[in-house]
Amino acid sequence: QPQLEESGGGLAQPGGSLRLSCAAASGFTLDYYVIGWFRQAPGKEREGVSCINSVDNNTAYYADSVIGRFTIFGNNAKNAVYLQMDSLKPEDTAVYYCIGSQRRIASSFLCEEGGPEVYENRGRGTQVSVSS
């Protein structure tokens, strides 16, 4: 059973917005040193989208392709991390996965190197489709 659960995906028009949520599954806590999102589109390599170190310094990493359009932030009270996606483009279409690591690594490392050898937990993913 995945310890992370994503929600908020769906269909949006180009220029539109979606907000993805990542929460701990029932019985688990969102207790990670770094947490973030990667996406995978059919036929393309995994891309680290945005990751954040919410323990020490709130340092956030963003892929060049989403800078200025996506924002990652957390809500400790709701035990969740969010990815606000604005000015969506068709090339943002992908399955988005939430990943978390308890290792003391930089947010950039989780996103740029974030394969299964780096994160401890990953959600099942949520589909984001951007089309007119």
Q: What is the makeup of the main sheet?
A: 7 strands, mixed
User: Whole-number radius of gyration?
Assistant: 13 Å
Runs with pLDDT <50, length 5+? none
The chain-level structural class is: mainly beta
Average predicted local confidence, pLDDT = 93
Order of helices and strands: EEEEEEEEEHEE
* Quantity of strands, as a count: 11
From the spread of the alpha carbons, the general shape counts as globular
The first-to-last residue Cα distance is 35 Å
Helical fraction: under 10%
Number of helices: 1
Strand content: 35-45%
How would you characterize this protein structure?
The strands form two sheets. Strands 2, 4, 5, 6, 9, 10 and 11 form a seven-stranded mixed sheet that branches. Strands 1-3-8-7 form a four-stranded antiparallel sheet, with no helix packed on it. The mean pLDDT is 93. It is built from one helix and eleven strands. 36% of the residues are buried. The chain is globular and about 40 Å long. The chain has one helix at residues 107-113, and strands spanning 4-7, 10-12, 18-24, 34-40, 47-53, 59-62, 70-75, 80-85, 94-101, 121-122, 126-130. It is mostly beta strands and 132 residues long.
State the gist of this model.
The protein is mainly β and 132 residues long. The protein has one helix spanning 107-113; strands spanning 4-7, 10-12, 18-24, 34-40, 47-53, 59-62, 70-75, 80-85, 94-101, 121-122, 126-130.
